[in-house]
Design brief:
Radius of gyration: 25 Å
Bound molecules: cytidine-5'-triphosphate
Strand content: 15-25%
Number of strands: 21
Shape: elongated
Largest sheet: 8 strands, mixed
Length: about 400
């Protein structure tokens, strides 16, 4: 997403400047070509040399420096940027932008650019809550500037409250969102993720190794592309992506209920969850005591949620997953047909770099007309992007 993009990282003065160093590292790692512009105050906290070393490029600090002006110039920077990120953005910087003031390289460049501007504010809580600041923020948001909500916590000034710079990872995600195509705007997408947990008694359960990472990545990317996303998640430690309506469930029966509740009004369902196929025939009300040498648990079949959606389908686009350990294509093709799907994502979970609890996946997309697409090993977020490209294409074909 950020590969090859030109990003201007504007750093203004505040204790959070050191976090902008980490943000620069993340942006560079994601493949972006990052140019750093620092205000005079920012240089009081961290020297330009730190940013220069990490970005491998001179840091721009001075509006009237002839060399910098010739090499990059504020207009050239403003023109070339695909995105401006202001992090940390002080109340002063935001105030100046809102008033149209351009008295240093950063404010001049921001004013001269037509690229989207992402602002990550950081300031004292009282400053953040000051109606003057709030008015400036609201005004800029109305003009189309993307403004993040600061994080809460203990601030450097000794106060507790809202005003901390959002985490660099969160700023990175937001930058990806700003630059994403909005080709899923107006579409409602329901994603399931994670395992389900079938209780044996109040302290034990039957489950599987699914981490939920694939489904959470799909939900996050779908949201970035403008979709209205509901994420029905089995038990995982993952945090719900910003802007996604997350419904946490435990068992397959609860997942079924949550999925069916929203199905009628949904355009696309992507079932990345690893639903337990069986549940306990009888869940014990009290903790089962150890007595006999062996123990037999009687299991009964869970409803197949996706097959049910396939039967009830009225124009929704249905995408399933098939995690297999053998005969990948045959099993996936069978599921595609049997569950009346529009697409299935097949992966061999025994391959290194694929499957549960890793950050990458190796998948194939299968379609009802017999087409098979093979993708290389890539991050789960990249798989999510490819998958949603295909989903967006299928939605367009239908209209
Ligand atoms: N699925 C579902 N409900 C179930 C089982 C599976 O909705 N009770 C969905 C999964 O979310 C996935 C697809 O069906 O999208 C395939 O799941 P998988 O476990 O691979 O297939 P099963 O149909 O359960 O077949 P098997 O366990 O025999 O491989």
């Amino acid at each position: 997403m950020l590969q090859g993009k030109t990003i201007v990282l504007g750093v203004s003065g505040g204790i959070a400047v050191y976090k902008a160093v980490e943000l620069l590292r993340l942006l560079t790692k994601a493949g972006a070509d990052v140019h750093v512009v620092m205000t005079k105050n920012a240089q009081e906290f961290v020297t330009p040399l730190t940013f220069q070393t990490l970005s491998g490029k001179p840091v721009h600090t001075d509006l009237f420096n002839l060399y910098q002006e010739q090499e990059i110039g504020h207009i050239s920077l403003a023109d070339r940027a695909d995105l401006f990120i202001l992090a940390p953005a002080t109340a002063n910087l935001i105030g100046k932008i809102a008033q149209g003031l351009a008295d240093d390289l950063l404010t001049t460049s921001v004013m001269a650019t037509t690229a989207p501007v992402l602002i990550a504010p950081a300031m004292n809580t009282n400053m953040y809550e000051n109606p003057i600041y709030q008015r400036n923020e609201k005004y800029l948001a109305e003009l189309g500037y993307h403004i993040m909500t600061p994080a809460s916590g203990a601030l450097a000034c000794g106060w507790e409250g809202k005003g901390k710079l959002p985490a660099p990872e969160a700023i990175l995600t937001e930058a990806q969102a700003v630059l994403s195509p909005k080709d899923l705007t107006g579409r409602s997408i329901l994603v399931t993720a994670g395992p389900t947990r079938e209780e044996i008694d109040p302290v034990r359960y039957v489950s599987n190794y699914s981490s939920g990472k694939m489904g959470f990545a799909i939900a996050e990317v779908a949201r970035q592309r403008g979709a209205e996303v509901t994420l029905v998640a089995g038990p995982t430690n993952l945090e719900a992506p910003a802007g996604v309506c997350c419904v946490r469930v435990g068992s397959a029966a609860q997942m079924r209920e949550a999925v069916l509740a929203g199905y009628e009004d949904t355009d696309v369902v992507i079932k990345a969850a690893a639903v337990a196929d069986y549940r306990l025939a009888e869940r014990a009300d009290q903790k089962i005591k150890k007595s006999a040498e062996t123990m037999i648990l009687e299991l009964e079949k869970n409803p197949d949620i996706l097959a049910e959606l396939g039967r009830l389908k009225e124009g929704q686009l249905l995408v399933g997953f098939a995690a297999e350990t053998e005969n990948l294509l045959a099993h996936a093709q069978d599921k595609l047909q049997r569950k009346n799907l529009d697409m299935i994502v097949a992966n061999d979970v025994t391959r290194p770099g694929a499957g549960f609890d890793v950050d990458t996946n190796i998948v194939r997309f299968l379609y009802p007309d017999g087409r098979i697409e093979e993708l290389a090993e890539m991050s789960k977020h990249q798989v999510a992007r490819h998958l949603l490209d295909r989903v967006a294409g299928l939605l367009v074909d239908r209209t």
